[in-house]
Specification:
With 1375 residues, the protein is α/β, with parallel strands linked by helices. Helix content is 50%, strand content 11%. The strands form five sheets. It has a six-stranded mixed sheet with strand order 5-6-7-3-8-9, sandwiched between helices. A six-stranded mixed sheet has the order 16-17-18-13-19-20, sandwiched between helices. α34 links the parallel β17 and β18. The longest helix is centred in the C-terminal third of the chain and has 31 residues. The radius of gyration is 36 Å and the shape is globular.
Length: 1375
C-alpha cells in the first residue's frame, strides 16, 4: 500500500506492514470458529504481530488528584413554564444591564459541588470498582478520567495524569482509554455484525498488518466473549424498533468499544444495567483476564455488583454525594469501616454493605456489632461529611497520596519509547487517515440505507405521487398570459416544497447526532469526514427523490425543454443543489441546538425568511432597503432566478381573448393589449431580471458556494460544540427531612384496612402458557405453568433471552399478537378465567422502560394514577393518603415536586413502581424493578414488594441480577432457560436452601456458603452437559407444583370477590377532567414547544410585516400586494402542523401504557388533547394575527373576520398535525405527510393557479380544500366595497378604437384620453379599479365568506374524528 495515501505518516508504517505481513503470512488463515481454536495462542500471536509493527503495547497507569466539579444551582427552584421562559429572558436582560452599570458586581450564580476532592489511581493489571448510589457523581468522575468533554455549565479543577510511554499530553486519551457509557446509543436498523464491523474499521487503522483478518476475528471473538455471537445477524433495535433484547443491546454497547483490544484502559460507566448476574460475572471475568494477560487496567462503576464480581476487583473507590469515603484495596474496605464502628449484617453482601454505608435509613443496622456501645458517640459522625473527613484523616488516605506521588514520579523508560512515526500517529485525534474514515463511513451509510430502503422508497414514492399530482394540476401549461404566470408559480412552489421538506428531517438529525457524538468522542472519526460522507449520500438520495418530484412536474406541466432535455437536467441540478443547501443548513441548526423543538422553530423561521425574500412575492426593486441585504445572501433567490431564466429563455407568449386588457367587450379585440410577449420581456417586466446565458453558470456556482459554506459551518459547529447540561436544582430541606431515617419500617403502605382489599389472599395461576412466532417455527415460551398467591413474591429469572419478559407480557395479556404469532394457555385470578379488560383493571404492570409524562411532578403522577384507577367509591382524601404512603414507602418524598424528566434513573424506576402500587392491584407484575438503581434502592423496592404481598396481592416480577439479600426477600422462583423452558419452579428457601438442594441433588456443583444463590443457579443452568429442562419435567417437584397450581385455579363461591363489570371506575367526565388537567400542565411546562411556536409565529409575522410595512395602499401595487399578503398567512400553518407532531408522538408510549392498564378511555385522551391545544393555539395565533394585520396595513374595521378566520385555519392545521401523528408510525413520516398534504392545499388554494385555469378533473379539489375557503373568505372580507387608484406608471394603455373620438365615451369602464401633440393617441385605464375585480379574478365569491368559515369548521371536525379513530384502533408499539 503506497505511503502517499496518508501524507502525515512516514513510509515506515507501510513498510512495516508489508514486512510483518510477509513474516506472518499464514495469520489470515486462522479460523477463530474452528473447534480447536486456542484463544491464548491467538492473543499471543496477535501481540507478536503488533509488537513487530512497532505498536506500543505498554502498561498504562492513571492517577487523578483533587478532582472537583461544580454546577450552578437554580436558586428559584421553579419549574420552567411558558411564562417563566419569557420572564426569565426579561430577568436575564435586566441582570445584564445591571452588570454593565455595575461591572464590579461578581454576579456569580450559586453552585453545588458534584465532585469534591476525589483522588485515586489505576495501575496496570488492576481493576478498580467505583461504587456509589444514584447522584454520587460516579458518571462524572469516569468522564473526567476518560478525558471526555464536560458540559459547559460544569466547572472543573484537579489533575488527571496518564503515565504512558508517550510524552505527557502528546497522545490523545481516547487512543489508550475506551469509555463505555451507560446508555445504548446505536443506529437501530443496523445488525450487530455491521455495528461491530464499523467499530473495528475505525479502531484498527489500515496500517496495521493483516488488518482485515484482525478486524474480522475481533468481531467474532468480542461477540463470543460477550455472549452475543448468535445475534450477529440480528438488528440492534431500540425501544421502538424490535431487535436484540435489552441485555444483549447492552453487550453490543460494550463490544463496540471493547473491540479495539489495543486500548490500555477500559472505563465502563454503570455498564451492568439490564444484565443478569451470570452475564455480569462473565463480562467482569473477561475484563479481569484482559488485565491479567495484557496488563491492561479497567475502571468500572456499578450499582449493585454481586460478591463474586466484587472479589475480582483490586481497588475500591467509594463515593457518596460527590465525596470520597474510601479508596484502597477491596480487601481492606470492610475492616476500615469496622474501625469506625460500622459492621456488616450476617447475610448482607459486602458490596451492598459498602454502597449503603452512608444511607441514613440503613446505616443504623450497621451500628449493631461488637462496639454497639459506641452508637451514641458515633451517630453524629455517620453522615457523608463526617465519613469523608474520617477517611482523609486515615492511613488509607495517606497511602493513596503516597501511591499517586510515586506513580507520577516514576521515570519514563526510554527503551519503551515509541518510534517517531508512531508518536506522530498517537498525537492525532483519529488513528485512521481521512481516506479510510470516509471509506468506513460510506460502507456503514450504504448498509444503513439498505436497512431502511423501504422507508427511502416510500419517500421516493411520496415525491413521485406529489409530482404526478402537481403535474396534473398544472397540466400542459399554455403559452398564454395565464401560462406565463403559472410557470413562475410552479417553480416557486417547488422551491417552497424543498425548503419545507428539509424541516421534517430534524428529528432524524437529532437521532444521528447522538450516535455521532458518542463515536466522535471515542475517536472513531473526525467531524468533517463524517459530514462529507453524509453530503455524498445526501446528494445521491436527494437526486433520486428530487427527480421523482421534478421530472413528472416538468414534463406534465409542459415546461421549457429547449429542444432537448438539457433544461430539465439543469432545473433538476439546481433544485438538488437547493435541497443539499437546506440539508446542510438544518445540520448546522441541529448542531447548535439541544432539542428538536427549538431547532425546528429556528429552522422554520429561517426557511420562511428565505422563501419570502427570494424575489417571487416582491421583486428586488420593491423590497425595502433594510431587507434587501437578506435578498442578496438568500440562496433561494439565486436558485429561483436560475430556474426563471432557464424556463423563460426563448419562449414566446400570446393572449387569449379573455386575457387581453381591458376586459371589455365594447372594445374590439384588436385594440386590446396582450400584457406578455416574450419570455425575456416577461422576466424583465415582472421580476426585473435581465437574461444572459452566462448567468446560468454563475447561479450554479453561487449555489455551490452556499452549499460549501453551510457544510463548513455545520462541520465547525458539530466538531466544536460541547454537550450542554442543565442547572442542578435544590431539593428543599423540608422535603428532604420528611423521610424518617430511624424508622424505615414505619413507612409501609397502609392498605391493610382498605375496604377494597381486605385480608383476602388472592390467587393467580397460569397454566401451559406457550408463545411462538414465525408461524410456530420459533418457540419463546414452552408450556410454562406456575402460580402466585398473596403473601409470597414470585421471582422470574433466567439467562438473557430466556423469555422472562415474554412470560410476564403473556400472563398480563399485554403481548401484541401479529401475523405468525400464537399464544395458548389459561390465566385465572381466584379461580376465575379473565379477559384482557378485566385483568387490566385488576392488575398493575411495571414496565422495564420508565414511561411517564415527563412534564408532571412525582406527586402529580401518583395522584393521577390514584384518581383514575382506584374505585370511585374511595374518597379523594383517601386517595391522597395512599399517595402519601407510597411516597414515603418508596422514599420519593424529597422528589415529590420534581419533574419526572429531572429525575435520575433510580428515582424514575421507583416512580414506575409507585404509579402501579398506588392502585392496590390484586396482581402486580414488575419487569426488572431493580435494574439500574442503587443497592439501597433495590432493597427498598424488595422490602416494598414484601409488604405489598403481605396485603394479599399476588406479586410476580423479573430480576436480572439480585444481590444475595434482595434474593432472600423473594419466596418462590420460576427459572427459565432459553426457549422458554421451565428449569425450576418452587420455594427458594432460607438463603436459597430449597433451591440449592434441588440442583445439588441432581449433580450440580455445591455452592459456597458465601456465594450468591441467584448467581450460582444461573451458572448451574448454563452448563450444557445437563438438560435441566428435562430434569424438571421428570421431577416430583414439577408434579407437586402442577397439583398445587390446579388446586389454586379452582373457583369458589367468592371467586368474583365483588368484581363488577364496570370495575367501579371513574366516570367518563371525571376521566376527561383529569386528563385535561394533566395535559394542560404538560403543555404549560413545555416551553420548548409552546414558547417556540409563539416565537416562531411572532418572528414570521414581524418578517412579513416588515416586508409589506404599510404598503397595502389603495394603489394598483397595493391591490396586488394585498392578495399576496393574505396568501402568506397560510405559510406558517405548515410549521404549526409539523411542530405539534413531535410532542404528540412522544406522548404515545405513555398513552399506550395507560390504556393497557385501563386508566382511562381513549375518548377521554382524545378530548383532552384537543381541548388543551385550543388555548395555546389561540394565543400563538393571536400574536401572529395582531402583529401581521396592523403592520401590513390591512383595513382596521375588518379585523374581526380576519381574526376569526385565522384562528380557525391555524386550529385546523394543528388538529391535522395531531391527526397525522395518531395514524402514522413515526414523527418523521407524519411530518413528511403533513408537508405533502399542506403543500397540495396551498397549490389548489387559488394563488398559484386559478380555478378556471385548472384542468377540469382538478376543479373539484377547490371544494374540499380548507385553504381555498379560508382565502376566498379573506379576499371577500378585505376587497368588498373597496376602490383602487392608479399612480403614475400603473396605468394600462391601449390604442383608441376606430370610430371613437373620446376614450371617456367607451362604455363598460373608466377610460382617460392620452393626448400627444393635441391628438388623442391612446386610452389609459386602471387594471384593478375596485376590489370586486380581484374577487371576480379569483372567483372568491362563489361561497359566502361566513359559509367558508363553516367549511373550515367541518374540516376540523373531520380531523378530530379521524384522530379519535387513530387513538382508539391503531398501535405503533408492540410487545
Amino acid at each position: 500500500m503506497p505511503p502517499h495515501f496518508h501524507p502525515a505518516l512516514s513510509a515506515t508504517v507501510w513498510d512495516n506492514k508489508k514486512r510483518v505481513e510477509s513474516l506472518y503470512n499464514d495469520f489470515p488463515d486462522i479460523n477463530v470458529s474452528a473447534p480447536d481454536f486456542d484463544i491464548k495462542k491467538y492473543v499471543g500471536l496477535l501481540r507478536e504481530i503488533l509488537h513487530a509493527a512497532d505498536v506500543p503495547l505498554h502498561p498504562i497507569a492513571t492517577t487523578w488528584e483533587s478532582l472537583r466539579c461544580t454546577v450552578p444551582i437554580s436558586t428559584s427552584g421553579a419549574i420552567d413554564t411558558v411564562v417563566s421562559c419569557f420572564t426569565g429572558l426579561a430577568s436575564a436582560v435586566s441582570h445584564g444591564c445591571a452588570r454593565i452599570m455595575t461591572p464590579h458586581t461578581s454576579g456569580k450564580p450559586p453552585s453545588a459541588s458534584v465532585l469534591h476532592d476525589v483522588s485515586g489511581y489505576l495501575l496496570p493489571g488492576q481493576l478498580c470498582l467505583v461504587l456509589g448510589s444514584s447522584g454520587s457523581g460516579t458518571s462524572l468522575l469516569l468522564s473526567r478520567i476518560a478525558g471526555r468533554e464536560m458540559p459547559k455549565i460544569i466547572q472543573t479543577s484537579g489533575d488527571v495524569s496518564y503515565q504512558t510511554v508517550f510524552n505527557p499530553g502528546q497522545a490523545k486519551p481516547a487512543h489508550f482509554t475506551r469509555y463505555i457509557g451507560q446508555h445504548d446509543v446505536h443506529i437501530p436498523q443496523l445488525t450487530v455484525r455491521q455495528t461491530l464491523e464499523f467499530a473495528a474499521e475505525c479502531i484498527w487503522p489500515a496500517w496495521i498488518p493483516h488488518v482485515d483478518a484482525i478486524r474480522r476475528n475481533e468481531v467474532i471473538l468480542t461477540a463470543r466473549g460477550l455472549g452475543i455471537e448468535r445475534t450477529l445477524d440480528t438488528i440492534v433495535g431500540s425501544d421502538i424498533l424490535r431487535g436484540v433484547s435489552g441485555g444483549e443491546r447492552k453487550r453490543v454497547t460494550i463490544a463496540e468499544m471493547q473491540i479495539g483490544g489495543v486500548a490500555g484502559t477500559l472505563i465502563m460507566d454503570n455498564w451492568s444495567k439490564g444484565l443478569d448476574s451470570g452475564t455480569t460475572l462473565s463480562i467482569t471475568q473477561a475484563v479481569r483476564s484482559f488485565a491479567d494477560v495484557l496488563k491492561g487496567s479497567a475502571l468500572l462503576s456499578m450499582q449493585a455488583p454481586g460478591s463474586e464480581v466484587y472479589s475480582l476487583f483490586d481497588t475500591l473507590c467509594l463515593l457518596d454525594q460527590g465525596q470520597l469515603l474510601y479508596f484502597g484495596p477491596t480487601g481492606d474496605a470492610e475492616g476500615y469501616f469496622n474501625s469506625l464502628g460500622l459492621y456488616r449484617p450476617q447475610h448482607r453482601s459486602l458490596p451492598d454493605f459498602l454502597s449503603t454505608i452512608a444511607d441514613p435509613l440503613i446505616q443504623t443496622e450497621y451500628l449493631d456489632g461488637p462496639n454497639s456501645l459506641l452508637q451514641e458517640q458515633t451517630t453524629a459522625r455517620l453522615d457523608t461529611d463526617n465519613l469523608a473527613t474520617k477517611f482523609r484523616e486515615s492511613e488509607h488516605f495517606a497511602k493513596l497520596q503516597d501511591t499517586i506521588a510515586s506513580v507520577k514520579a516514576q521515570p519514563r523508560d526510554d527503551t519503551l519509547r515509541p518510534k517517531e512515526h508512531i508518536e506522530k500517529i498517537g498525537a492525532k485525534r483519529v488513528l485512521q487517515s481521512p481516506r479510510y474514515q470516509i471509506a468506513a463511513l460510506a460502507r456503514r451509510q450504504w448498509r444503513h440505507i439498505m436497512s431502511i430502503r423501504r422507508s427511502f422508497l416510500a419517500e421516493v414514492l411520496q415525491n413521485l405521487v406529489l409530482g404526478l399530482l402537481l403535474g396534473s394540476i398544472f397540466w400542459q401549461l399554455p403559452d398564454t398570459a395565464g401560462g406565463a404566470n403559472s410557470r413562475g408559480g410552479i417553480l416557486f412552489l417547488i422551491l417552497l416544497l424543498i425548503g419545507l421538506s428539509s424541516l421534517a428531517k430534524i428529528p432524524v438529525r437529532f437521532e444521528e447526532k447522538e450516535v455521532f457524538a458518542k463515536q466522535k468522542a471515542a475517536s472513531f472519526f473526525d467531524a468533517w469526514p463524517y459530514l462529507l460522507t453524509q453530503a455524498i449520500f445526501d446528494f445521491c438520495q436527494e437526486l433520486i427523490k428530487t427527480a421523482a418530484l421534478v421530472i413528472p412536474v416538468y414534463l406534465m406541466a409542459g415546461l421549457n425543454l429547449g429542444g432537448s432535455a438539457q433544461r430539465l437536467l439543469y432545473c433538476l441540478l439546481i433544485i438538488v443543489m437547493v435541497s443539499l443547501t437546506m440539508i446542510s443548513m438544518t445540520r448546522f441548526v441541529v448542531a447548535i441546538f439541544d432539542d428538536a423543538e427549538s431547532a425546528s422553530g429556528f429552522a422554520g423561521v429561517l426557511t420562511i425568511v428565505l422563501v419570502l425574500l427570494n424575489g417571487y412575492l416582491k421583486t428586488p426593486t420593491e423590497i425595502q432597503g433594510y431587507l434587501i441585504w437578506i435578498y442578496w445572501i438568500d440562496p433561494l433567490h439565486y436558485a429561483f432566478e436560475a430556474l426563471l431564466i432557464n424556463e423563460y429563455d426563448g419562449l414566446n407568449f400570446k393572449c387569449t381573448l379573455e386575457e387581453r386588457i381591458p376586459a371589455n367587450s365594447n372594445i374590439p379585440a384588436e385594440f386590446r393589449v396582450c400584457p406578455v410577449s416574450t419570455g425575456e420581456q416577461y422576466l424583465e417586466d415582472t421580476f426585473g431580471i435581465t437574461n444572459d446565458k452566462i448567468f446560468r453558470l454563475y447561479f450554479f456556482l453561487v449555489l455551490l458556494g452556499f452549499q460549501v459554506l453551510f457544510f463548513l459551518l455545520s462541520a465547525y459547529t458539530t466538531a466544536r460544540t460541547k454537550p450542554k447540561g442543565h442547572p442542578q436544582r435544590e431539593i428543599s430541606q423540608s422535603s428532604a427531612s420528611s423521610v424518617r431515617p430511624n424508622d424505615k419500617d414505619a413507612v409501609a403502605i397502609d392498605v391493610q384496612n382498605s375496604p377494597s382489599q381486605g385480608p383476602h389472599k388472592n390467587r393467580f395461576t397460569f397454566t401451559d402458557m406457550s408463545y411462538s412466532v414465525d408461524d410456530g417455527r420459533k418457540v419463546l415460551l414452552n408450556k410454562v405453568t406456575g402460580n402466585a398467591v398473596g403473601g409470597k413474591v414470585v421471582l422470574l429469572m433466567g439467562e438473557s433471552g430466556a423469555g422472562k419478559t415474554t412470560l410476564l407480557d403473556v400472563c398480563a395479556m399485554r403481548k401484541t399478537l401479529g401475523k405468525g404469532t400464537s399464544v395458548s394457555g389459561e390465566v385465572r385470578l381466584n379461580g376465575r378465567v379473565l379477559d384482557k379488560k378485566a385483568l387490566a383493571h385488576l392488575s398493575g404492570y411495571c414496565e422495564q422502560s420508565d414511561l411517564h409524562v415527563e412534564e408532571a411532578t412525582v406527586r402529580e403522577a401518583l395522584l393521577f394514577s390514584a384518581k383514575l384507577r382506584l374505585p370511585k367509591s374511595i374518597t379523594l382524601k383517601e386517595k391522597m393518603d395512599k399517595v402519601e404512603n407510597v411516597l414515603a414507602m418508596l422514599r420519593l418524598e424529597p422528589y415529590q415536586h420534581v419533574l419526572v424528566k429531572a429525575l435520575g434513573a433510580g428515582e424514575k424506576k421507583l416512580l414506575t413502581m409507585g404509579v402501579e402500587v398506588v392502585t392496590e392491584p390484586k396482581v402486580l407484575f414488575l419487569d426488572e424493578p431493580t435494574s439500574g438503581i442503587s443497592s439501597s434502592s433495590a432493597m427498598t423496592v424488595a422490602r416494598a414488594l414484601r409488604r405489598i404481598a403481605e396485603t394479599g396481592t399476588c406479586v410476580v416480577c423479573t430480576v436480572h441480577q439480585p444481590s444475595a439479600e434482595v434474593f432472600d426477600m423473594f419466596d418462590m422462583l420460576l427459572l427459565l432457560k432459553r426457549g422458554g423452558k421451565v428449569v425450576y419452579f418452587g420455594d427458594i428457601g432460607e438463603h436459597g436452601a430449597t433451591l440449592r438442594s434441588y440442583f445439588e441433588a441432581r449433580g450440580a456443583e455445591q455452592m459456597n456458603e458465601d456465594a450468591n444463590a441467584a448467581a450460582w443457579m444461573l451458572d448451574v443452568i448454563s452448563d450444557e452437559k445437563t438438560d435441566w429442562a428435562e430434569e424438571w419435567l421428570q421431577s416430583k417437584e414439577k408434579e407437586e407444583q402442577g397439583k398445587q397450581t390446579a388446586e389454586l385455579a379452582e373457583g369458589d363461591e367468592d371467586s368474583s370477590n365483588g368484581w363488577g363489570e364496570d370495575f367501579d371506575t371513574p366516570s367518563f367526565p371525571r376521566q376527561t377532567v383529569e386528563m385535561i388537567r394533566r395535559q394542560f400542565w404538560r403543555y404549560w411546562r413545555l416551553p420548548e414547544y409552546n414558547t417556540t411556536r409563539v416565537m416562531l409565529l411572532l418572528m414570521i409575522a414581524l418578517m412579513i410585516g416588515l416586508l409589506f410595512l404599510r404598503e397595502l395602499s389603495n394603489t394598483q401595487t397595493g391591490a396586488m400586494l394585498s392578495f399576496a399578503a393574505l396568501f402568506l398567512t397560510v405559510i406558517p400553518s405548515n410549521l404549526s402542523a409539523q411542530n405539534v407532531i413531535p410532542p404528540t408522538t412522544s406522548g404515545r408510549a405513555v398513552f399506550y401504557r395507560e390504556i393497557a392498564s385501563g386508566t382511562y378511555e381513549t375518548t377521554a385522551h382524545h378530548v383532552a388533547v384537543g381541548l388543551v391545544e385550543l388555548p395555546f393555539t389561540v394565543v400563538a395565533t393571536t400574536v401572529f394575527v395582531v402583529v401581521f394585520y396592523f403592520m401590513v396595513g390591512l383595513t382596521p374595521g375588518r379585523f374581526g373576520y380576519f381574526f376569526l378566520a385565522s384562528q380557525l385555519l391555524y386550529l385546523f392545521t394543528v388538529v391535522l398535525g395531531v391527526m397525522l401523528a395518531s395514524v402514522t408510525p413515526t414523527a418523521a413520516f407524519a411530518e413528511n405527510l403533513a408537508n405533502s398534504i399542506l403543500s397540495l392545499f396551498n397549490v389548489v388554494s387559488g394563488f398559484f393557479i386559478r380555478k378556471d385555469e385548472m384542468p377540469s378533473w382538478w376543479r373539484w379539489s377547490v371544494w374540499v380544500n380548507p385553504f381555498s375557503y379560508y382565502l376566498s373568505g379573506l379576499v371577500q372580507n378585505e376587497m368588498e366595497n373597496k376602490t383602487f387608484i392608479c399612480e403614475a406608471g400603473e396605468f394600462g394603455l391601449f390604442r383608441i378604437p376606430d370610430g371613437v373620438s373620446d376614450c371617456a365615451s367607451i362604455a363598460g369602464g373608466v377610460y382617460e384620453n392620452v393626448v400627444e401633440n393635441g391628438v388623442i393617441t391612446a386610452c389609459r385605464f386602471c387594471p384593478v379599479p375596485t376590489g370586486q375585480t380581484l374577487i371576480d379574478l379569483y372567483a372568491a365569491d362563489e361561497v359566502n365568506k361566513w359559509l367558508s368559515l363553516v367549511a373550515v369548521v367541518v374540516a376540523i371536525v373531520i380531523c378530530r374524528l379521524v384522530t379519535g379513530f387513530g387513538f382508539a384502533k391503531l398501535r405503533f408499539m408492540t410487545r
